[in-house]
Design goal:
This protein is 44% helix and 12% strand. The chain is α/β, with parallel strands linked by helices and 483 residues long. A seven-stranded mixed beta sheet has the order 1-7-6-5-4-2-3, with helices on both faces. Strands 8-9-11-10 form a four-stranded antiparallel beta sheet. The longest helix is centred in the last third of the chain and has 36 residues. It is globular. Bound molecules: pyridoxal-5'-phosphate. Pyridoxal-5'-phosphate (PLP) binds next to helix 6.
């Protein structure tokens, strides 16, 4: 009989193969190039694989994992993988993912997932409590910060539109809605604005001060100007950790201003909000509790595996107004202990992502997170000190968080780009590009649980060496224009 299930021997075999894979992978990480030397033949074999008519053995699957997938994967857990705001995963997450998959709870109707429903409520409440949000606050676990931003801005838009949000949408509206953010904002806000039909021409990018924080005076001027021309300002997006330099906007002042102007304040805290777990960052991050909504990413500073984001709205009834569609086939009696998560976001079927968030917090606890977060900031400070001291480097922004933007001043933008490309290609380290005040630089973002001071030293030595070698190369001639 055709069967999609395993016998207990096959389960045992799968468990053994997985255990061997995990152990081997972790033991081999340090010897692998951070960025793989991609084997195009392997990739082509994957791309050209015909649709499988018959299944294969488990050994074959794990064999292919070792020969085709792992060697062609970017090793995000490698100690010198530092390009984006992307951590190596903590140790408990893979197990939580596996358990969640076995239980296969559908986290929409509570009857399909009672315990998972309670777990998700609990982690959202824990997060809300970190910022001092009250009992009316609510939210849900999302796929990440981008989805969290989209859900928050949907709430802000629909709240402003009122009842017509659902029936008329933006169609036929005479006075377009306008949002404000700083020029350093993450592109997920642009994406949300576009998806929501607000139009990126109605997203004002307010210039920043020398610390990459939004200028409140310029924000106020822009709002006045827009009102004078008949537009409807409705929302300000602040950042708790801008994607390039990690700057934190003046949240308390933004909140006071927004309240005085009847504007929704959303804080994109995908990058930095969870540093509230550390004493060092708590004070500035706890100001987030003044906002109307916040996005945060457990798959960043909680170091869960992908995917795990979270959105919290100060008044959860606004979130429900935006997303509550109750067809008769999903009708359900209210229960004081449970939430209907389908009313909190655009998804219906949803997995049990909250388990890895819950397990991460319970297994490691706040104190461990505080130490890890501070270690990340210390590593950045150490690299920043080297960049500041050694004449081969120039810091492009103060190091205030866990990221460092710098360049080699004796090379132009193209030369710096070349250094970054070679550093990644030769497999030493994976850093990212940064554009700081229009200048190209390299950016290291410390979110890796295996990184030590010796990695920082090795990276800086290698970058300096590449810089010297590129400086000695004959400069490329600009081709003459063909007459
Ligand atoms: C400031 C900021 N906002 C939003 C995002 C998007 O988050 P995600 O990748 O989880 O969708 C990021 C990602 O790095 C970010 O740094």
């Amino acid at each position: 009989m055709a069967n999609l299930l395993f016998s207990s021997e096959e389960h045992q075999q799968a468990a053994n193969l997985t255990k061997t894979f995990i152990e081997r992978y972790h033991a081999s990480l340090a010897d692998r190039p951070v960025f793989p030397n991609v084997d195009r033949d392997s990739i082509r074999t994957i791309l050209e694989e015909p649709f499988p008519e018959n299944g294969c053995s488990l050994e074959d699957l794990y064999e292919e994992l070792e020969t085709a997938i792992v060697p062609n994967s970017t090793h995000t857990a490698h100690s010198r993988f530092l390009p984006y705001v992307q951590p190596s995963p903590n140790a408990v997450s893979p197990y939580a993912e596996m358990v969640a998959s076995v239980l296969n709870q559908n986290c929409n109707l509570w009857t399909l997932s009672p315990a998972a429903n309670a777990v998700e409520q609990k982690v959202v409440r824990w997060f809300a409590g970190l910022f001092g949000f009250g009992d009316e606050a609510g939210g849900l676990i999302t796929s990440g910060g981008s989805m969290a931003n989209l859900i928050a801005l949907t709430s802000a838009r629909d709240h402003r539109l009122g009842e017509s949000a659902r029936t008329e949408g933006l169609q036929g509206r005479k006075s377009p809605l306008v949002l404000y953010t700083s020029e350093e904002v993450h592109s997920s806000i642009d994406k949300a604005v576009s998806v929501l039909g607000l139009g990126v021409n109605h997203l004002r990018r307010i210039p920043c001060d020398e610390h990459f924080r939004i200028r409140l005076d310029l924000l106020a001027n822009a709002v006045i100007e827009d009102r004078e021309t008949g537009l409807t300002p409705f929302c300000v997006v602040g950042s708790a950790g801008t994607v390039t330099t990690g700057a934190v906007d003046p949240i308390a002042e933004l909140s006071a201003y927004c309240r005085s102007q009847n504007l929704w304040l959303h804080i994109d805290g995908a990058y930095g909000a969870l540093t509230v777990l550390s004493d060092r960052f708590r004070e500035s991050m706890s100001e987030i509790g003044h906002a109307d909504s916040v996005s945060l990413d457990p798959h960043k500073f909680l170091f869960t595996s992908f995917e795990a984001g979270c959105v919290i709205v100060k008044d959860a009834s606004i979130l429900r107004q935006a997303f509550n569609f109750s067809p008769s086939y999903l009708a359900m009696e209210k229960d004081p202990d449970f939430i209907h998560f389908a009313d909190y976001g655009p998804q219906l079927s949803r997995g049990f992502k909250a388990l890895k968030v819950w397990w991460s917090l319970r297994r490691f606890g706040r104190k461990t997170y505080a130490e890890v977060i501070e270690r990340m900031a210390d590593l950045a400070a150490y690299m920043g000190k080297i960049a500041d001291k050694r004449p081969e480097f120039e810091l492009l922004a103060p190091v205030v968080f866990n990221c460092v933007c710098f360049r080699l001043p004796h090379l132009d933008d193209r030369g710096n780009e070349k250094v970054l490309k070679r550093l990644v290609e030769n497999g030493t380290a994976f850093l990212g590009p940064a554009s700081v005040k229009g200048r190209f630089g390299l950016r290291a973002c410390f979110m890796n649980l295996r990184t030590g001071d010796e990695d920082v030293e090795l990276i800086m030595d290698e970058i300096a060496r590449l810089g010297r070698s590129i400086a000695e190369e004959p400069s490329e001639l600009t081709p003459m224009p063909v007459p």
